[in-house]
Amino acid sequence: MIPWTVETPLGSLDVNGWTLVWAVVVLVGTVLVARYGARAVRRLGTRVPNLADDLLFRIVRFVRYAIYALGAGVILGLLGAPIQPILIAVLITLGALVLVGRGVADNFGAGLVIQVRHPIRLGDLIECDGHRGHVVDLNSRSVLIRTADGAQVHLPNNLVMNSALQNLTESGLARSRLEIRIAVDGPDAVPPVADLVLGTARGVPGVLPEPPPRCLTTAASPTEAVLRLLLWHDPESSFEVCTEVTTALSAALGAAGAQYAISWPPPDPTAPPPGVG
Length: 277
Known about the structure:
Helix content: 40-55%
CATH architecture of the largest domain: Orthogonal Bundle
Shape: rod-shaped
Radius of gyration: 32 Å
Strand order of the largest sheet: 6-5-4-3-7
Strand content: 15-25%
CATH class of the largest domain: Mainly Alpha
Structural class: alpha+beta
Low-confidence stretches: 6-11, 269-277
């Protein structure tokens, strides 16, 4: 067959009947491979436990577009088009997209790792970046948790993977901190007060004996001491146990005639300290 030349923005294409036939064959094959390849990836993705639907959709779409791009390159090569400028343009575009969408890509990759390795699952009680709550959704962008007060917090997947993550459901226990500010008559009065705090905390139902509660002195003056009570309990009973411990400490310290102030969680260290009540 006698070839004919077609001028395009990509350059001159030497087209004949056979190259046109092969181009059509490759085009049809590309469409079929993209369709069935995407179906195969979707079918495999449904077998991955807890893989979010939107993450699977993005993976399938990426596979389909990659097959289309490969088919387009083969067709242009059959028609004699100079594909080097196209490849350079594609690489430049991909580089720009990587720079612009680096955060999105990081979250996408971290989300894929979370979905496959399962460090957390739906319903788990976790603590990350100062937020504690139950996992209610896992997607390609973030981990959604619901805190004890009903607020919903979106933790970016990249943050979850690169920050300290505590899965309280998996560990089976959680630690809470209470701060007790108490008026004392000199340093010698601090140890008896600490013993009273520890003994009271041990007797509260829900406080675990192992690890045992601890009472640390974090600040002291001739007239005041600041104690930090650390105790462990079931992850789901944080509020209930801390409430019971606060009530028991208030009763014990009040019966001892002490002037005190109890708070949990402890106040921000940068905040001005409250006066002793």
